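Q: I have 317 residues here and want to know how they pack in 3D. Can you give me a structure?
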Amino acid sequence: MVQKRPTPVYIFTGFLDAGKTKFINDTLQSPDFAAKKGTLLIVCEEGEGEYEPSMFASDEVYMATVEDEDDLTPDFLASLAEGKKIDQIMVEYNGMWMLDNLYRNLPSDWGVVQEFSFFDASTILTYNANMRTQVVDKLQSCDLAIFNRIGDDADIMPFHKLVRAVSRGADIVYERESGKIERDEIVDPLPFDVNAPIIEIADTDFALWYRDMSEKLPEYDGKTVKFKGMVLKNPKLKSNEMVVGRKIMTCCVDDTTFSGLVCSYNGAPFFENQTWVTVSAKIELKKHPLYQNKGPVLNVISAARTDAPEVEVVTFA
């Protein structure tokens, strides 16, 4: 039996008046868009910009408004497409609503294809200083971050760093006030050598290494690494296993989680819970009960007790 492909969903997010509506309007008015009929446009935020349906290149664009975040349920969202031939879905998401709520409630036959995040360069750094959680939320899963209203002579580095502190994979585009469009081509070398015989991770670089390894697991298979971490015991572990990791803060104190790696080591029973250790180990990708799928199991070469680092909680910045 041939399975029906999910209806593609394109998510546009960012804060009020960041340019989402204008971008969607321009897209819907493009002659190239006319070939794509049957579009459901879900609007979750009202800004200064307004949609102009009379200017859309296709007359099969169906608009729906969601005013309350609690309305985001699979049944409600699915009802917006009932009785219509929908080929694609565009969501202008409210910048103050968390994206997890949308992803959790998408109907099972909808599939997110791309997520775009829009930012007004004149205000985003202030947003980041005062509402870091919301900013991180809009960056951590986006495919493309667009910064507009940037002065022609303004430095783009603060915006580049803002994105890279959360995501190394997102593409970045800058729109100057003159209208010039620039793609981000800044290369960020990792602060450790992944091709060294032993990859040595500084105390402050654990978060960057953990994320890089999570994104490129096959590249780390068979590599040898040395780092400092805290031991945590877990009832799912064998007697010769322990978890070693660090607390990572994504955006604020309330968003701090322990990120650890399973270590196989005959000396594991001699390390008490929450002991700080320096570990040298060879990484092997294989299934383990603590991982949902294959994950990095560290075959420990050596482990020794050590003092806690000056800053126990690490960040991506």
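Q: Anything worth noting?
A: Helices lie at 20-29, 74-79, 99-105, 124-130, 132-139, 157-164, 206-215, 217-220. DSSP finds eight helices and 15 strands in the chain.
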